[in-house]
Amino acid sequence: MRPLAIALITGVTLMVSPLAGAQTSPPPPAQQNPSPMVEGTRSHERLAPTPLGGMSRSFAGPAGKPVEVWIPDHAGTRDVVDLVVHFHGTAWLPQQAVARVGSPVVAAVVNLGAGSGGYHRAFTDPAAFDSLLAGVEREVSAAGARPVRVGGVTLTGFSAGHGAVRAILREPRHFAKAHAVLLLDGMHTSYVPDGTVIDKGGALDTTNLTAFADFARAAIHGEKRFVVTHSEIFPGTFASTTETAEWLLRALGLRRTRVLLWGPRGMQQLSEVRAGGFEMLGFAGNSAPDHVDHLHAMPELLARVLGSTAPGNSGTNGHSRSDSPEARRQVAVTFDDIPGVAMPRSARCDRKAHAEMNRKLLGSITEHRVPAFGLVVEGRLCERERGALPAILRMWLDAGLDLGNHSFSHFDINNTPLSRYQADVIRGETVTARLLAERGRRLRYFRHPFLHAGTDLRTKGAFEKFLLGRGYRVAPVTIDNQEWVFAEVYAMAKDRGDKATADRVAASYITHMKEVFDFFEKLSVQVIGYEVRQVLLLHANPLNADYFGELARMMRARGYAFVSIDRALEDPAYLLPDTYAGPRGLSWIHRWASSKGMKMQQEPREPEWIAGLFRGEAARGR
Ligand SMILES: [Zn+2]
Fold first, then answer.
1. Which end of the chain has fewer CB atoms within 10 angstroms, the N or the C?
2. Distance 248 CA to ligand 1 centre (A)
């Protein structure tokens, strides 16, 4: 890996080959590290050092270079402190960024010179990072005159500093310890052959990038937080952060959303990707000050990493998570009946209204960083509108979310001949499977409409065998609920322009969901001895488009971390026997209870006034 000559905050080193004068053939590509262009298109605001309080200490770290530690007030009075380790950049700036986060987090800053190779080499031996952590614990303990342990670690790197981050992440113990990573315009690698740009037939040397891809996957699953920023700088002699970002997105099967947004320090954001706890932000600019902007944006970007909505966190502060993530509640959120259900009467066949509803719902899902799972009913749209389905499904995939099959026609297995029901499952694969295949993925989950799984064990078993044969796993539900009733009544109120009722229904919906969570949390303990990693059933409907954000806050307030359905189903409870056969669509917790011979308990119902409105609507033929 070629060292980066992009240097620190002051005095950016340029490696420029001035073009020769008169030439008959085109000049060879100039090295531009970064572009030598002088420009004033952006403001390039700069932060200044401010007094931070707390205490600064320093000890000799890797390569004999100082590790500059900032310890906030009161950190020494705790048994465990969280730590941000920053690589590359004058110490006061990352320290200021950490101080602004507001909770007691210790900052340690390491500078090892201009090249990423030096950072990588310094941490190739995992003992180097162990010794850094031990040094920080020693300094914080000395500051408080009592033993203090380092808990969660966030690794941040500007420019060449990413070399240290990737070397540290290669050690599985350190990968596990790192809760979060922030890379500020610094995910580079070499070309293969060395110095040969992609346009001239070169490729990226991806060996240096795999640790970041692994961390990104964990972030997408809600287990980590990973924010990557990049500029448009094209160094020429080694791969740009744009090129490595493109590689990473391809590896993850994600796509950018184009945006035009103001960033910190007058930066201009051009693209973004959000999937679970993973975020990539692309910014304009190909000059040295554009590069340095990323470091000066660190206070805002670090707040984003450690902020209130980091997935996998129980509290309101992302960095105060407990040391044992398994102790926290976890839930996978699933949305049935995509592209939409319980739409207002006027929008039943309206593709634009469906697209808009999905856009709004997905905005809320991504804002709360929920690695949600969607279940598609390809026949849901009116026939003449079905051409709109691929675009709607792509919105889900572009948001980094996964999709499963919920049949084409939403038939009920309890009153449909099995052969017809199975043919409908196959028909329901058509568009979804194609769109997944475009991204190198496949359909992996099926969910039974109405959660009906068969009234007799023979039908149930035969259908499960059919699913296995087509490569499906059943997508179970533990938190079943009456959300669909609220959604119908909500749509009805909207149809009439009755805002007061719509608001009351929405408030009652959130209350109902609290009762439902309470019920299934307790039931899980009674039936299996602990709270299972829950799977929540919701629907793609206007009620959730408007109120999923509030629901997400409710779940977080109960201490839930949002996880993918894959992650939830790693809970061994999902291997428990399910021998229930009968007319009811049931939570899997009820099924496990029934299989154990336990008596089934009554779930919370919607309030009578909601039920009354629903019955009235049903009578009018809604
Ligand atoms: Zn359904």
1. C
2. 34
pLDDT single digits (tens) 327-360: 379 999 999 999 999 999 889 999 999 999 999 9
Q: What is the strand order of the sheet 268-275 is part of?
A: 55-60, 66-71, 105-110, 80-87, 149-158, 178-184, 225-230, 278-283, 268-275, 257-262
The Å distance, Cα 402 to ligand 1 centre, comes to 17
Q: Which residue has the tokens 């359905």?
A: 565
Instruction: Write the DSSP string, 243-306.
Output: HHHHHHHHHHT---EEEEEE-GGG-EEEEEEEETTEEEEEE---BHHHHHHHHHTHHHHHHHHH
Q: What's the one-letter identity of residue 209?
A: L
Q: How far apart are CA 122 and CA 112, in angstroms?
A: 8
Share of the chain above pLDDT 70, in %: 91
**Distance in Å, CA 443 to ligand 1 centroid:** 17
The DSSP code for 355 is: H
Find the DSSP H helices in 439-482. Answer: 457-469
Average pLDDT, the chain: 88
Find the mean pLDDT for residues 130-153.
Answer: 92
Nearest to 19 by CA among 32, 6, 7: 32
* pLDDT at 15 exceeding the cut of 80: no
The confidence band for 4, taking pLDDT boundaries of 50, 70 and 90, is very low
CA–CA separation, 431 and 457 (whole Å): 31
Compute, in angstroms, the gap from residue 375 CA to the centroid of ligand 1: 8
Query: How far does the centroid of ligand 1 lie from the alpha carbon of residue 338, in Å?
Result: 9
Stretch 218-225: mean pLDDT, rounded?
A: 90
- Residue 134 to residue 597: CA distance in whole angstroms: 53
What is the CA(557)–ligand 1 centre distance, in A? Answer: 28
Bridge pairing between strands 268-275 and 55-60: unpaired
**Which residues, 6+ apart, have CB-to-CB distance to 86 below 8 Å?**
94, 107, 108, 109, 110, 156, 157, 158, 161
Which domains, ranges and CATH numbers included, belong to the chain? 52-306 (3.40.50.1820), 329-619 (3.20.20.370)
Global confidence as pTM: 0.56
**What is the H or E stretch that residue 561 is in?**
strand 560-562
Question: Which H or E run contains 165?
Answer: helix 162-169
Q: How far is the CA of 502 from the centre of ligand 1 (A)?
A: 23
Q: Which two tokens stand for residue 200?
A: 């001239």
Distances (CA, A) of 407 to 271, 412, 422, 426: 35, 10, 9, 7
554 CA → ligand 1 middle, Å = 24
Q: Please give the Cα distance from 314 to 310 (Å, whole number).
A: 9
Locate the DSSP E strands across 359-491: 373-376, 402-405, 445-446, 473-474
Given a cut of 80, whether residue 63 has pLDDT beyond it is yes
Strand partners of residue 374: 335, 403
201 φ/ψ angles, rounded to the nearest 5 degrees: 100, 0
pLDDT classification of 96: cutoffs 50, 70, 90: very high
Whether 197 has a pLDDT exceeding 50, the answer reads yes
410 C-alpha to ligand 1 centroid (Å): 6
- The Å distance, Cα 380 to ligand 1 centre, comes to 10
Query: How far does residue 585's CA lie from ligand 1's centre (Å)?
Result: 11
Rounded to the nearest angstrom, the distance between the alpha carbon of 540 and the centre of ligand 1 is 10
